[in-house]
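Blinded run. Sample ID left blank on purpose so nobody reads anything into the name before looking at the predicted structure. Input follows.
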Amino acid sequence: MPPHDRPAITLPGWVTLAATAIVLALFIVVMDGPFTTGTIFLPESIVYLAAGAVGALLIFGPPFLMACAYLFVLLTGHESLSLITVSRLGAEWHLREIMLLIAMAHIGVQVFRRRFTLRDCPTHYWMALYGLFFILALAAGLHYAHPRAVLIGEARYALFFCSYPVLLAGARDKRDVMRLAVFSCGVLLAAALLGLGYFTYAMATGAIGSIHNTLGAFVKRDIGGVLVQSVRPNGVAFFESAAIVLVALLCSARLNTKRRLVLTGLLVVFLAAILITCMRTAYLSLAFSLLFLALLSLPANRRIAAALALTLLGVLGFSLLLLIAPMLHPPALHLLEVSLRARLVETFGAWELFLDHPVLGAGMGASFEALGLVGQRAHMSYAITEYHSVHNFFLYVLFKGGLVGTLLVLLGLGGLFVYGVRVMDGLSDAYERAFVRGMLTAFFGQCLASVAMTRFYFPMGHAFIAFVAVTVYVFSFTDRAPDAPIDDKD
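Blinded prediction complete.
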């Protein structure tokens, strides 16, 4: 019987009361000072009571509500700043970590009530391989006895791999997946509209400036002698994903005129929001994703030839980079643009640390020193800087987990994608097939962007991978064509 068709089991009253008391006590322990609420002034007792009440509601509430609340916090939260923070164990804990704690308690309740069951699916095994990397990196970090505060600060991001069971519980069928996608799109749309509104205001009034706060990053850019306000609100990393899924849906023939107009309007908003970010990585990720979407839209027998051609171009480009790389050590770095210089400095340092620990990596908490770039963009200087991470996620995996960890990540993410393509080909409904195609293309685009940015390193990156995996899992059991190349039995 499918998980969503299982009968509910009513808990005795004393069990519910006891569990609620435990949750409230856990919140008090976790949130025990030093405690700050950013720019919001509230007595701690009120925060404790409010957090306990909301936490109990989410823990014992419906799974879909829990999944929505979880995604909302991650989509609207900043990577490193938060309105509410708790300092414990030598690290600063944010609202997202508290929400993860609530979500895992919710999973425990669902398991206890026998409402959380899983069907056998290759998706679980691919995600398990990916998750093993974080266990390996943590074990290596403990083995090398890296500073505890750094180790904990880095390991807390890896905890968000647990987004997978959270979203599995919240999306039990294809209708739930679609609803979660619409909800996420709505949150991103609000962020995009607010960003466009601020951009319009800044350009109209001339109040162009640079500020980095809990709402995002807002930086002035000089483009051809004209000052432009760059707007990067929280959630900006997934504007491209939303745009790609919308393009995929618009390519579906099963759309009436009204829905096509709505999706086109949404697409225009997201494209405009991407444009004002002034991020080259976002532009390139979107362009290559559109190309890849066209590739996935081809018949299966033509994809191989097209994929081989693209792979050949990639190998040629990488070979060219290897030829010019030896020329780019300092002081030759001054020939490149500032951000490119910084990324190459990181690359050389991480590569040297990998060579010291090639098999299992240096582990979480590991760092290296390199001649980094400091100061304002107009006046850059060199100084010895300590690096705990790099902008290239896959390079991060390489020097933290070595060859073994890199193999686990490539097998996990690659296997998930390949199986997702098989699931997509097995769907008979054109609209659902277009949705899954869009999700897989967005996944490819985020993997590509992660070569230059640490999107998968942060919590929302884990949640995005989990969302793709849950989509593949759910659609692998629904509306399968008779000749679909999937071996799983219902």
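Unblinding after everyone has recorded impressions. The two ends are 10 Å apart (CA to CA).
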